[in-house]
Every structure is written in C-alpha cells, then in structure tokens.
Design goal:
By secondary structure, the protein is mainly β. Helix content is about 5%, strand content about 45%. The two termini are about 40 Å apart.
C-alpha cells in the first residue's frame, strides 16, 4: 500500500546530505566577484570559464555573466576564456572585478563532438545538430530522449506510452529498414550502446540519468555518421555527459516533484445504455445477466501519479584532479494502479591532465539500479470492455472476492476465454523487477612532446547489465485459475566491451592557408548476453508439467572489428573537404560477406569568407554543403543466421519410439549469403546567418537509398528448411527536406527573447521486395496486427510503389446519408466478388511532415519557455472502435460486454475490422511543455543561487482524431497506456 508521502523520502535524504556538505565549502580564500560582458553589446556572458592561472581553481559565469571565485591572494592572475571570444588575463587586484571580452573572428563557433573526436563547428561539412542543456525539454523526465523531442529537424521521437520509463521510438529521416532495426546508434561518452533491451526494464535508456547529460549531437547524413559504418544507417545520437571543471568545491541540488493526471479516457457506453441495448436486443438469459450497478471501470484502474526526482552533484578539483560526483533518486508512480518505477543513479567523473597538459585522462563511471512494479496492462482493455452493470467485489471468498463471470459447469467455476475483472487483474498480479546497469570508460588522450600536433587516443569502455524479476499471481485469481496461479522468474546478464585506439593529427599550415585534421584508428566491440531459462511454477511452488527448459541458459554473442579513417581539410577558411572510410567486420555474416567498406565524402564552401561577402554587415554566415556516403545496418539481424543450426525440441514436442518419448533436433532455415543492409545518402545543404547571427537558418535536401533490404520471401520447395526465409532482396528510398530557423528578436541587458522553428518533410517509397524485381505475384508483407475478428489479420502492408506502413483494407461503401453499410465494400477488380483481391492501398501511418517550435524568454530573474510539436499527414486505424463498436460485442458471446459509442452511429451487428471506415486523420499539434522559472542570485550570505520553476507537460493537443491520443506508434490504436498531463514544481540550488 502506498503512503501519500512516499515521494518525499528521496527529497529529504538528498537534501540532508546536501546541507551537511555545505560546511565543506568554507575555505580560507579571498573571494573575487564580478561580471563578464560582451564588448559587442554589453550583455552578460554565461558559461565563461574563470580560472586561476597555473592551477585547477576555476568556476563558470552564471546566466547573466556573474561569477564568484576564491583565490589564495589578490595577486593571482585570472584567465577568462569562452569559445568565440579572445582569452583575457586580469590581475585580481580587488574583490570586485568586471571584465569585457572581445569577439574572436578566427574562432567563430564552438567545438562539436563528432564520432571519435571533436571538430570546430565552422569546419562541419555534414548535417549535424547539437542540442545543449539550456534547450532541453523540461519537467518530469524519466528517459533522456524525451529532452530532445521536437528540437531537431529530421528527428521524430514518439513516446511509446504513458507508462513510467516506457521510452520512445526514435527515427532519424524516416528509418532505413523494414525487417531489421530502425533505431539510431546511441553513443554515450564514447561507448556505443546495443539497441536490445534489458530484461525487467521497459526501455534501455531508462538507466541513464537525464540530469547528468550536457548535450546531444545528432549525426544525420552519411558524411557525419559514416565514421560509425555498419551501425549508422539510421543515424547516430552522441550523448555527452557533464564533466568536472576543477577549482573550488561546487555543490548543486535540484528536486522536481510532480503530479500526473489522466487527461482523457476511452469513450464507452454507460451502464444504462448497456441495459437499454440488452433489453431491446438480447435474449431473456442475457437480460437476466444484467447487473444493477453503474461501474466506471476506467475510473477504478487509473489514479493520480505522484513523482519525485532528486539530484545532488558535487564538483571541484583536488590539485590537478577535476572531478564530478552526482547522485540521483527518482520515484514515479504511474497513472495505472500498481505501476511504479524507482531509480537510483550514481555518476563519477575524473578528468585530470598530466605532464604539462600533454596527457588528458577522462574517467566516466555511471550506474543505475531500478526497482519496478509493472502493472498488468491487460486491465486497460479490460476496463474498456467489461460489463459496467456489474459490481467490483462480491461477498464470496472465491476468486479473492472479485466479481467474475461464473459457469458452474466448468472445473474452475468460471466462464472460459472471457475477460476478467480489471481491478482484479491489477491487484492480484505482482510483476516486479530489479535490473541494474553500469556504463563507463577510461579515455586517454596523449599529445606527443616531440610532435604536439599529433594525439594518440585510447578508449576502453564497458556496458554491463543484469535484468531479473519475478511474476506472481495468486492461486485463486481468476486470470490464472486453471493453472493455480503463477510464480515464475527471469534473468539476463549482459557484458558489452569496446576498445578504440586512434591517432589524430591537427596542423595549421599558414603558408598555404590550410588546416588539416586527420584521424585513423581501430575499434573492437564485443556484445555478450546470457539468458537464463527457468521452469514454470504455479503460485504454490508446484512445477508445471513439461516446463523444464531444454537448456539452462543461452549465450548469444557477436563481435564487430573495424578500421576507420577521416580527413578534414580547410583551405583559407573557405573551402572544406571531409573524407571518411570505415571497414567493418561482423561475426553475424559468413566469411565471404563478413567485411564491408563504408565511405563518404563531403564538400563545403564558406561563401561568407569570400572577398565579395567578407565585409557584409548584414550577412553573418553563409555556407553551402554537399555530401555522399554509404552506411550499414547489422542490428536486428540474427547472430547465426548464415549457419545451419539445429534446435532441440521442447518436451511437449517429443517423438515416440515404442513406449518412450524422445526430444528431437530440428533444423532451422538459414541464408548463407546474408549480408549488410546498405544505405547510400546524398545531402545538399545551406547554412546562413544574418544580423550578427540573430537570424540563423539551415536547409537540407536528402536522398537515402537502402539496398540489400532484408525481407521474408518464399523459398523454393526443397531448397531450405522453412517455407520462408529472410534474405537481402529489397530496395527503399527516403527523400526529404529539413528546415531549421532561429531568431533572437530581443537581446538587451534585462530582456532576452529567442525562438526556433524546425520542419521536416519525408517521403518514403519501397522500390523492390523480391528476388525477381517487381514480381507482380508478390503483393507485399503485412504489418499492424488487428485485435478482434479472425486471428492473423492486419491493417497495413509494405508493398512496392508505396510507403512503408500503408493501410491495406477494404474500401467501405456508404448510403446516401453518409452512413457506412455493414458488410458492403467496393469490388476493386470488378469480378463480382469481394475478397482478398479487393483490398486497396490507402493512407500512410507515418506522418509526411514534422514540425517543432521552441520559445525562450527571460526578463531579469524571470524566464519562460515552451515547446510545440506537430505531425501532419499521418493516419491511425481506430482498433478500439472496430473491435467494440458493434452489437455482437455486447450480446454476441457467453457474457455481456461494454462497447464503443460508435455502435450507436453505425448500428453494425458484427465486427467489420477490415473496413477502411476506421482509418482516421491523426495529424496533431501538441504543446509538449511550458516552463516558468524565477532565479534568486544570492542566498546564504551570497554563497549560493536558487532557481524555482513550475512546469506543465502534455499541455494540450489539437487534432481531429476521435480516439484517446493521435500519437500512436505504428498506426494501430488498441488500448494505449494514456499519456498523462504532468504538473511539476522544481527547486535548484547551487553553491
């Protein structure tokens, strides 16, 4: 049973630790305070590094350029540095020091993290987007990718559901596969993550503490991502976490406490409407089955969700040892009863330098432990369809007192194969997990003494995880009454390792106006998983017959060995060249196909630096970019698919010889020449800035062609051990435009306002799916399983000539009043029959256009921000209406059930699940969040700053879609876990 104050425990624990640590801050030092401003406009500069020369004592200016630093004496020299500005050294001769920095035209922009190193933003030739912490989505954030939603053109992030930690579906430029993975490669501080999940965790990224993240870098085109070769076909997201700054001790504490409320529930008939329909259409037996209650089952399964997210961070430096330590605790209760997620995280960073700054060391250690109870989501559909005229509980002790449909003629006393009490489904199931994960690496960067332009970089990293959990259902629970309950367990371990070594040479050749940045290296990645198999037990601990596993565990493993190189050449800050080559070898393919080359080349022309534009005052930036490259795909492909393998049958599939039964080995299908999916991408772009970059914009056109697409196709008789097999036969294209605009209308000392807009248009076309191109006998393969009707029915198809996930249903016929006619559909081929040959391709499930809008405004200590997001051109199949919007749903089985009010519109007597009547326009505009904050600059005798904030997430949705939520993964809406509205209050204290 939950206590209403559970969410305060973590807050008090970390707050007490934080307050007790304040005493450590007191040091015998001279305090120097001041403000750093820009010479161009006199505005305060945030993020300027202030360092005592020759030491690791340092700090960073705050939002208005203010700083405070303790130094041993007033004779020390302070260094002020910021990217884009000239370095300045000032003697700390007084306790108040105001500094003005001049812009450095030779270093026009910041350093950007790219694959295996960094580069100057002005040297970028590919399509790269950077989102820093100041632009993140705000509020109650459980998984990192939520902070990126709506911020980058070409990147679609769709929340999988409203369940705590459920994660998101991420697509960059539409994805590049049909049967393999469409997920981007995610790299955290140099450690590439495996896309597979961890047992007991609904989302692999839920282990990462969002508060530890400094920035996201999104590599979208092949020029930017080809350095990752075989894993980059779907783009790359590089996550950089916060580092230690050195200097004096700095403490920070932030807490966000939230309330989640369900916004909308599925429309169903009321108890009185059910009674009226049954009395008008039901048999006498059905009329007698009606209850006298008015139960709103959805009200009973949903709750208000409380959440707390608390983080303490300590950073500073001990001599030459900058460090950062952060501890986080999060407890989130879902809006579905019994759903809860707890997460404890720890991150430790050391980034010292040695040998007069020739050796740079970065040690990153991150770990998280989750404690989760998963609610039984079957209750969501159950609450929609369970009879509202019945009670929740009975006076009996059988079935633990929950009301259920009874049948004295069955061994269990229950009607078989019908829905169970939704409240009972939740309260009688204990689905708990305790997974944990740690990600870390040690990176050594050595600058050679005899050749300081040459760096050697060694990166050794790991990603280890253990997922384990149990599922227990009471022996008397109706859900599992025929097997006396459930008492099962599961466990999985993972050990992934990475070893990278590369040389990086950066040299300015001023005599020939050239700059060279060359990288060459080696990468080794090993992915090992151990999956434990357990027997099945009932609630009393009795083993279920024939449930012993064939093997106690399985250890799937694959390796990737790679060589890579990259050359960046800059001539006269005008003409740029980037060339990349990577050779990957994967254990997932036969020796003949094990290795592949992934090249790319990109050119850029910085027109702004040409003589005819160099002195233009209105034009700040103008660059043209063009690139072409090939990337690969190996995720989602079986480890041993190229080998002939034999599987031992289960005890239930034994073969009888005489009186004995023997488990047999059976062969599985294999394709010896299976290989990488490859995606060739062409990208043409332009970057521009006006009025001292107060107006900026980027426009990109891209064309992606995926070849050797994996598809399941029929196998000729006698040629394989299965009628179908997944082979490399297909081609697919993505064409699109991306637009990003940024505006700074107001920039004064007290008032600042900036906003940005991004738009993406993507057109996906499948061009081939068969061994013989454009085989007219192959219609395509289905997708989007439909609930209801006959099993094995689908709403979507992937077929040549259309986009992936295109609706493929029967075209509904309507009467003169516009009402659908039950069972009457258009005969597409005119043969006088309506059958599988009359299905037609309809609208796409995927949107054609994505839009994002972000606004930030600050006035003195106040700040206001919000984010809007829109999808246009996407459609959804309303499976709730198609399954429950008919009379048979109410009276067509051994029990009574609730139905969709759509039945009152159509008067359908039976399900018409293959009708395109249920396809709806699901375009939408959402306000993802709005945040209001106030900053107190000086508290605790001017030693600390305080920020208070209030945030609302999922503020509103504008759409024509009649269902619960228009944002449905994969186009079929069937009992989605509702996304709640979240209201949060936050506090952030920094010493």
């Amino acid at each position: 049973m939950h206590n209403s104050t559970f969410y305060l425990k973590g807050s008090w624990l970390l707050l007490l630790l934080f307050i007790s640590s304040i005493n450590l801050y007191a040091q015998k030092a001279v305090m120097v305070t001041g403000t750093v401003r820009s010479a161009a406009d006199g505005l305060g500069l945030p993020g300027v590094s202030v360092r005592l020369k020759g030491t690791t004592t340092a700090t960073v200016t705050g939002p208005e350029g203010k700083f405070s630093i303790g130094i041993p004496s007033r004779q020390g020299v302070l260094e002020f540095t910021s990217i884009g500005f000239l370095k300045q050294e000032v003697i700390a001769s007084s306790s108040i020091l105001n500094v003005t920095l001049q812009e450095d035209n030779a270093s026009l922009s910041e350093v950007v993290v790219v694959g295996y190193g960094t580069t100057r933003k002005q040297d970028l030739t590919g399509s790269v987007a950077v989102v820093s912490s100041k632009d993140f989505q705000k509020g109650n954030i459980t998984t990192p990718e939520q902070m990126l939603s709506g911020k980058v053109a070409g990147v679609s992030i769709t929340s999988n559901s409203g369940q705590p930690g459920s994660g998101s579906t991420i697509r960059i430029r539409g994805g590049s596969s049909l049967n393999a993975s469409n997920d981007p490669l995610i790299v955290i501080d140099g450690v590439p993550l495996e896309n597979g999940g961890v047992s007991g965790a609904s989302n692999p990224l839920s282990f990462i503490n969002p508060n530890d993240i400094e920035s996201f870098t999104v590599l979208k085109d092949a020029s930017a991502s080809a350095i990752y070769g075989a894993r980059a076909a779907n783009g790359v997201i590089i996550i950089t976490t916060k580092k230690g700054l050195g200097g004096e001790l700095k403490l920070g504490f932030n807490s966000v406490n939230s309330l989640s409320k369900i916004i909308k529930k599925v429309d169903v008939l009321s108890a009185d409407q059910i009674r009226s329909i049954v009395n008008a259409n039901g048999t006498q037996k059905q009329k007698d089955m009606l209850g006298a209650f008015n139960t709103n089952w959805q009200d009973l399964i949903y709750q208000d969700g409380l959440a707390t997210d608390n983080n303490l961070n300590i950073s500073g430096g001990i001599k030459n040892l900058p460090y950062r330590l952060s501890v986080g605790y999060q407890n989130q209760r879902g809006i579905l009863q019994t759903d809860e997620l707890q997460k404890t995280s720890l991150a430790f960073v050391l980034n010292p330098t040695f040998f007069d700054h020739h050796l740079k060391v970065d040690l990153n250690l991150k770990g998280s432990a989750l404690k989760t109870r998963f609610a039984n989501t079957a209750a969501i559909g159950g609450a929609v369809s369970f009879d509202p005229t019945q009670a929740v509980y009975t006076n009996r002790t059988d079935y633990n007192g929950y009301w259920e449909w009874l049948d004295p003629s069955t061994p269990s006393g229950l009607v078989n194969l019908v829905g169970r009490n939704p409240v009972g489904l939740l309260e009688q199931r204990q689905d708990r997990s305790d997974p944990y994960r740690s990600i870390g690496n040690l990176q050594l960067d050595y600058k050679f003494h005899f050749l300081p332009d040459l760096h050697a970089n060694l990166n050794a990293g790991y990603d280890v995880a253990t997922g384990k959990g149990t599922v227990f259902v009471d022996q008397n629970a109706a859900e599992t009454i025929n097997r006396a309950g459930i008492n099962t367990q599961y466990k999985q371990t993972r050990m992934n390792t990475v070893l990278d070594f590369y040389l990086n040479y950066v040299k300015e050749f001023k005599s020939i106006k050239s700059r060279v940045d060359a990288t060459a290296g080696y990468s080794y990645n090993d992915y090992l998983t151990k999956i434990y198999n357990f027997a099945d037990f009932d609630a009393n601990g009795n083993k279920i017959a024939n449930s012993d596993p064939t093997f106690p565990f399985n250890k799937p493993q694959n390796r990737l060995i790679s060589y890579f190189g990259r050359l960046n050449y800059n001539y006269d800050e005008r003409y740029l060249l980037t060339a990349t080559l990577r050779r990957d070898g994967s254990s997932r393919f036969a020796p003949k196909y094990k290795y592949a080359l992934f090249p790319s080349i990109a050119l850029a022309w910085t027109l702004k630096n040409e003589d005819f534009l160099k002195n233009s005052k209105d034009l700040s930036t103008l660059k043209l970019r063009a690139s072409y490259g090939i990337t690969g795909q190996q995720d989602g492909i079986d480890n041993y698919g190229y080998l002939s393998t034999y599987n031992l049958s289960t005890p239930n599939a034994s073969y009888q010889f005489g009186n004995a039964f023997y488990q047999m080995y059976r062969p599985s299908a294999y394709i010896s020449n299976i290989k990488w999916e490859q995606t060739a991408t062409t990208n043409i772009g332009v970057d521009a800035g006006f009025l001292d970059n107060r107006i900026t914009g980027s426009l990109d056109w891209y064309y992606k062609k995926t070849s050797d697409l994996l598809n399941k196709v029929p196998q000729p008789a006698g040629t394989n051990f299965s009628a179908t097999a997944v082979v490399n036969v297909g081609n697919m294209e993505n064409k699109g435009l991306e637009l990003t605009l940024g505006f700074v209308p107001v920039r004064t000392r007290y008032l600042n306002w900036d906003f940005s807009f991004n738009a993406t248009y993507n057109k996906n076309t499948i061009t081939n799916l068969t061994v013989v191109p454009n085989d007219p006998n192959y219609k395509g393969f289905p997708a989007g399983s439909i609930a209801g009707g006959v099993s094995g029915q689908y709403a979507l198809i992937n077929a040549v000539g259309g986009s992936k996930n295109t609706f493929y249903l029967l075209e509904q016929t309507y009467d003169q009043s516009g009402k659908p006619i039950e069972g009457v559909y258009v005969d597409q081929n005119g043969d006088g029959l309506v059958n599988e040959n009359d299905f037609h391709k309809g609208k796409p499930a995927d949107p054609k256009v994505f839009l994002g809008f972000s606004n930030n405004m600050s006035y003195k200590q106040w700040n206001l921000s919000f984010t809007l997001r829109a999808n246009l051109g996407n459609y959804v199949y309303n499976n709730i209406k198609s399954q429950t919007g008919n009379l048979a749903q109410i009276t067509g089985s051994a029990i009574l059930a609730n139905a969709s009010p759509n039945y009152l519109v159509t008067n359908f007597k039976t399900q018409q699940v293959l009708s395109d009547y249920y396809i709806e326009n699901a375009s939408f505009l959402k306000m993802d969040n709005i945040n209001l904050g106030y900053r107190f600059d000086k508290i605790f005798q001017s030693k600390a700053s305080l920020q208070l904030s209030a945030t609302v997430q999922n503020v509103f949705t504008i759409t024509k879609y009649s269902g619960l939520d228009p944002e449905v993964p994969f186009g079929v809406d069937n009992n989605l876990y509702p996304r709640p509205r979240v209201m949060s209050l936050g506090i952030n204290v920094n010493f």
